[in-house]
Amino acid sequence: MSHCPYECNIQDGANPVPKPTPKPDHAVEPSQPIAKKQDFEPIVLAFSCNWCSYTSADLAGINHLQYPSCVRIIRFMCSGRIEPDFIMRAFEFGADGIIVSGCKLGECHYISGNEKAEKRLEMTGKLLDLLGYGAERLGSVWISAAEGAKFADYMSDFVKNIHAMGPSPTRNKN
Ligand code: FES
């Protein structure tokens, strides 16, 4: 039996062996295996809508309101754009907690994006429970552009809870 000279993983008389899919460049790389709960620095992603949530994060910055630096904000036009798949993939790539943040309910700039997001989050939370992550690792906050303090407080409380829960099951495996 000989191997293909072009390293395409096909051997004579055998079915092709699929190569492992490389992780995308933007994947959050889990750090070293985590020995103790208290040693770990959570990785928290905040999916924020452009119009209210992201502006409130900006306002928190302008007013020098502090929240944990482990929160990484990803801006979307509307929370209605966040699909369960984005959340599950983020956990798969090592996130310990995820927050979806958008305009106050009834004030979405795309009419009902945040209401749709809320329904999806409820369903995704159940899935996280089933998979053993815990629905508590998925948070949501609906906020106006003027509520920088609320944004900072929510992020701080959420990170505190994640810290108490410890690393996500995915990070523990690595
Ligand atoms: S635009 Fe903010 S949640 Fe839809």
Short précis:
This protein has 174 residues and is of the alpha/beta class. It contains 5 helices and 4 strands; from the N terminus they run E-H-E-H-E-H-E-H-H. Strand 3, helix 3 (113-130) and strand 4 form a beta-alpha-beta unit.
Largest sheet: 4 strands, parallel
What is the top-level CATH class?
A: Alpha Beta
How many domains, as an integer?
1
Measure the end-to-end span.
35 Å
- Order the strands across the largest sheet as they lie in space: 2-1-3-4
How would you spell out the order of helices and strands? EHEHEHEHH
Q: Enumerate the spans where pLDDT stays under 50 for 5 or more consecutive residues.
A: 1-18
Q: Gyration radius, to the nearest Å?
A: 20 Å
Give every kind of bound small molecule, once each. Answer: FE2/S2 (inorganic) cluster
Beta content: 5-15%
- What is the mean predicted local confidence, pLDDT? 86
Structural class: alpha/beta
According to DSSP, the number of beta strands is 4
Number of helices: 5
CATH architecture, by name, is: 3-Layer(aba) Sandwich
**CATH-assigned homologous superfamily:** Lumazine/riboflavin synthase
